[in-house]
Amino acid sequence: MRAASTFTVPVIAADGVRSELICVQPAGLAAHWVYWLPAMGVAAKHYLPLAEAFAAHGIAVALHEWRGIGSSHCRAGRKHDWGYRQLLEVDLEAGVLEARTHWPEATAWMGGHSLGGQLACLYAGLHRQDVAGILLVASGSPYWRTFAYAPLIYLALALAAPLSQLLGYLPGRKLGFGGNEARGVIADWSRSGRTGRYAAYGLAVDIEQQLAAVESPVLALQLRDDWLAPSRSLAWLLDKMPHAPKRTGIIDPSQLVGRPADHFSWMKVPLAIAAQWAAWMQSDNRT
C-alpha cells in the first residue's frame, strides 16, 4: 500500500506575512481533510504525529503555523504586533484558502488544541457554511471562574497584558507559558479570560454572536489530568454554541500508551485520539 506523503506549501497572508503550511496526504483519495490549529506558542511540526495518525484513516491534514511561531518569518516585538483579528481574518483566511486547493472535493473540518481549539470555533462562527464540524482536544475557554485556584488565574490574566505592553511582547518562553507572544494576542486572550467573552480588537463583527450561530457538530476530547483545560472550562466554551450538536469524551493514560493524560503529552501518542475523531467524522450519526 502506498504510504502517506508529507509536503509543505508557502502561505503569504494579505499583509505579506509568510509561513509554511505542513500538509499530510493519505494514501489514496481523501474524502475528508482537517485544518489543524496548534496551541499557543507551539509550532506546527509538533502535530505531525497527529496528522500521520489521521492519514492512516484516510483523512488529510493541513497544519497551520501561527504568526510569530515556527516557520513564520516574523516575530513578536515592539515593532511587530498583532491580535486575534489578524489571526482570524488574515492568516487563517490565507492558510485555509491554500489548503482547500489541495483537497477541493473533500469535506473540510476545523480542529485545534488549547487556544487553537478556541480559534477553530471562532473561525467556524465566521465561516459557518465552510466547516463541516469541529474537533477539539485539551481546549476550553480561559475564563478564570472555570478554574481551580481562580483568584491566582485572574491575577495572571490581569498581569499578562500590561507586562506585554511594557516589554513589547509576552516572553512566554521565559515564563514557561506559550511562546513569545504578540501583545495584541495577549490583550485579546486576557480579555476573554477575565470576562468570559470573546472579542477581537478591530474586528467589525460580534464574534460571540457568530459563535452562538454555529450549527456544525463538535467532538471535544478532554485529557483526564489536564488542569489547563478542565471540564468547566470546556463546558463554558461549548455552551457558547447552543445550536451545535456536541459530544465529549475523556482521554486517560490507558489510551496514551501509559503516558500522562495532560495538556501536551498526548501529542506524542495521538493514535487513539485520531481514531475516535476519524470514526466520528466518517459516521452518519454525528448528532
Topology:
Elements: E1 5-12, E2 18-25, E3 32-37, H1 48-55, E4 59-63, H2 84-100, E5 107-113, H3 115-126, E6 134-137, H4 150-167, E7 169-171, H5 172-175, E8 180-182, H6 183-195, H7 207-212, E9 218-223, H8 231-238, E10 246-251, H9 271-281
Parallel strand pairs: 3-4, 3-5, 5-6, 6-9, 9-10
Antiparallel strand pairs: 1-2, 2-4, 7-8
What does this structure look like?
With 287 residues, the chain is of the alpha/beta class. It has one domain (5-142, 205-281): Alpha/Beta hydrolase fold, catalytic domain (Rossmann fold). The chain is 34% helix and 20% strand. It has 9 helices and 10 strands. It has helices spanning 48-55, 84-100, 115-126, 150-167, 172-175, 183-195, 207-212, 231-238, 271-281, and strands at 5-12, 18-25, 32-37, 59-63, 107-113, 134-137, 169-171, 180-182, 218-223, 246-251. Helix 1 packs across helix 9. It is globular. The model has no long low-confidence stretch (mean pLDDT 96).
CATH superfamily: Alpha/Beta hydrolase fold, catalytic domain
The total beta strand count reads: 10
Please state the average pLDDT score.
Answer: 96
Alpha carbon gap, first and last residue: 34 Å
CATH class: Alpha Beta
Helicity range:
25-40%
Instruction: State the major sheet.
Output: 8 strands, mixed
| Whole-number tally of structural domains | 1
Radius of gyration: 18 Å
So how many helices? Answer: 9
Shape: globular
Order of helices and strands: EEEHEHEHEHEHEHHEHEH
Instruction: Provide the CATH architecture.
Output: 3-Layer(aba) Sandwich
Beta-strand share of residues? 15-25%
Oligomer: single chain
